[in-house]
Specification:
Blueprint (H helix, E strand, L loop, with lengths): L1 E2 L10 H9 L12 H13 L6 E5 L2 H12 L4 E6 L3 H4 L4 H4 L4 E4 L8 H12 L9 E8 L10 H13 L4 E4 L3 H5 L8 H5 L4 E5 L9 E5 L8 H7 L8 H10 L4 H22 L3 E2 L7 E7 H7 L3 E2 L1 E7 L2 E7 L6 H14 L1
Parallel strand pairs: 1-11, 3-4, 3-5, 5-6, 6-7
Antiparallel strand pairs: 2-8, 7-8, 9-10, 10-13, 12-13
Helix pairs in contact: 1-11, 2-11, 6-7, 12-14
Length: about 350
């Protein structure tokens, strides 16, 4: 079997492992107060052109979303997301578990539209019964979106303008951030992102790290007791240097962006392979996630040799299937897939 199920089923990039091994016998301070976390934080602040940013490291995406959102919201507030947003669809109610509601609004191609957000917030503020409702305390988007689509710089700017208009923070989930930043047609840089939101995170788990996400509060705006909140959520790593070391390696010699680009290049080749077989796509994604519409009998044949995700039902005769490349996908992997497609489609 060959797997295109997700982008986190490999270990770590060899250069990340190398840094872990070569520092293994050292004794450092714990809980992220070590020299390696400090070095990684400085590298991230520099590449983001955000000298006043605060950076912290957490283990995984769900922990990060639940912890950071909970640290920002008051008890009576919820987080605004599109209905297809990751926190609303694929985190098992983790946000609601912290007793905050995910407030959903409409989307287009997986993206939140500034006009839709503006109307929702304006309607809420002018609702005479608003005091009986969950107050929108922040806005959440992902880059790329759950469907692998991208916001343009203009769209991100418009969203951030709406957030500032209503004085609520914008949080960007960057679990696959590298794949978005290196995608063909993308016009958002890491620096631009850092200046057009209040907090975001740089995904490591899905891009070359064994685990770990780097959270960036863009203008020294983290909760003053964030450390305590992280610990309350069971998200504090005693051996914090393990996370800092990985990001130090990923942000050395442009590694993070180079390996992200590999996934997108491989996804383009994979997309061409399916197109040559006459397959349609559920949505046009320029990133490493490709959503292919297959006949149900094709799915049954293909899943005998390939691991992929059944994303959902398209109609009675077709299924939407997600195929994902990663930083570790090779040409040999795609050669095998191509041979399988020739037999199965």
């Amino acid at each position: 079997m060959i797997s295109f199920e997700c982008d986190y089923n490999n270990g770590a990039h060899p250069k990340v492992l190398q840094r872990l091994v070569e520092t293994n016998d050292e004794k450092t301070l714990c809980y992220g107060f070590d020299k390696y976390c400090d070095a990684a934080k400085e590298k991230i602040k520099k590449i983001c052109d955000a000298p006043n940013a605060q950076v912290c490291f957490l283990v995984g995406g769900t922990q990060t979303n639940a912890t950071i959102i909970d640290s920002i919201l008051h008890t009576y507030e919820g987080v605004v997301s599109v209905a297809t947003g990751h926190i609303n669809t694929h985190e098992a109610g983790a946000i609601e578990f912290t007793e905050h509601k995910v407030i959903t609004i409409g989307e287009k191609d997986g993206k939140m539209e500034a006009a839709v957000l503006d109307k929702y917030l304006d309607d809420f503020m002018h609702d005479g019964n608003a005091s009986h409702s969950v107050y929108p305390g922040m806005v959440y988007i992902t880059f790329p979106t759950e469907y692998g689509t991208l916001y343009t710089a203009k769209e991100l700017d418009e969203l951030y303008c709406i957030c500032r208009k209503y004085d609520i923070p914008l949080y960007v989930d960057g679990a696959r951030l590298g794949y978005g930043l290196t995608a063909t047609g993308n016009d958002i840089s890491l620096q631009y992102l850092a200046h057009h939101c209040d907090v975001f995170y740089i995904g490591g788990t899905k891009i070359g790290a064994l685990c770990g996400e780097a959270v960036v509060f863009t203008h020294n705006n983290a909760h003053p007791h964030l450390f305590n909140i992280i610990k309350q959520h069971g998200a504090l790593v005693a051996k914090g240097r393990l996370l800092g070391l990985q990001f130090e390696a990923l942000f050395t010699d442009n590694l993070y962006f180079e390996i992200s680009r590999n996934a997108n290049e491989k996804a383009e080749r994979m997309r061409d392979m399916f197109q040559r077989k006459g397959c349609r796509f559920f949505i046009e994604s320029p990133t490493n996630q490709q959503f292919v519409i297959l006949r149900n009998e094709q799915v049954k044949r293909l899943e005998k040799e390939v691991i992929f995700t059944h994303w959902g039902k398209y109609d009675h005769e077709h299924t939407i299937c997600r195929f994902v490349t990663s930083w570790a996908t090779t040409d040999e992997d795609l050669n095998v897939l191509e041979e399988i497609l020739e037999r199965s489609l």
